[in-house]
Amino acid sequence: MTTELILSIRPWLNTFESLRPLQGATAIIEKFQAYKLDLTNILHHLKLKEEDVDYADRTQIIEEWISLNPL
User: Fold this and answer.
1) Which H helix or E strand runs over 37?
2) pLDDT score at 13
């Protein structure tokens, strides 16, 4: 499901000049998989359960992860 979504959305995102050059779908999928693996450790470190994470938590976690793992 996630792979199909990335494959569908990437061409649309690539129409935004501010995002270009955009990595290929395979690279984006690999980054997402790495994020999902790291998320378990991040949540454990923050003493959070997946069901406790709200929008503010999730956006902060994603922003921090991207700053440590640039695209």
Assistant:
1) helix 25-45
2) 87
Tokens 């199909």 sit at which residue?
Answer: 4
Q: Tally Cβ neighbours within 10 Å of residue 42.
A: 15
CB-side exposure of 43: number of CA atoms within 13 Å?
Answer: 15
**CA 31 to CA 70: how far, in whole Å?**
9
Distance CA 9, CA 32 (A): 14
Q: Where are the domains of the chain?
A: 2-68
What is the rounded distance in angstroms from the CA atom of residue 19 to the CA atom of residue 62?
17
Give the type of residue at 6: I
Q: Cα 51–71–30 angle (5° rounding)?
A: 65
Whether pTM > 0.70 for this model: the answer is yes
